[in-house]
Amino acid sequence: MNRLLVLTSVSSVMLLAGCTTVSPDPEVTGTVASSAAAGATTIQEVWAKIGCDDDGRLDVSAPNPPVDHTGMCTPYEGGELVFFYQLPSADEAADWLRSGKLEIGARDAVFTDGAVVILATDASSAQKFGELFIPQSSVKQD
């Protein structure tokens, strides 16, 4: 009887919350993709996913609003520095990218994970991040 009650309660909550169907192959375009989906809220959460939690460095100086924190690390041997920008929310991260305030180099790739914007400066890191995070722009070639 308890199982039936639990199943009924779970079903009711799901119906009230509204279920959504997510395509296994989302379309990615060259525009700023919505990063409002559940994701990281701190730079440290992203670092834990890519192995930067030991050698990542947070910048102690005050960043320019709306950025809350910045950091950098080299997650892969032979790779270059990757820069991280933590914003108050995923929506603000998307808005900040749309504003053009982040200077993106010709070979840089930008990704988001929730409220964190990730700027990869080498193709190797960009390729690995493409499997983990939401791409916002692709690596540009000369």
Automatic annotation (TrEMBL):
Keyword terms of this UniProt record: Signal
Signal peptide (from-to): 1-17
Signal keyword on record: yes
Protein name: LppP/LprE lipoprotein
Biological classification of the source: Bacteria, Bacillati, Actinomycetota, Actinomycetes, Micrococcales
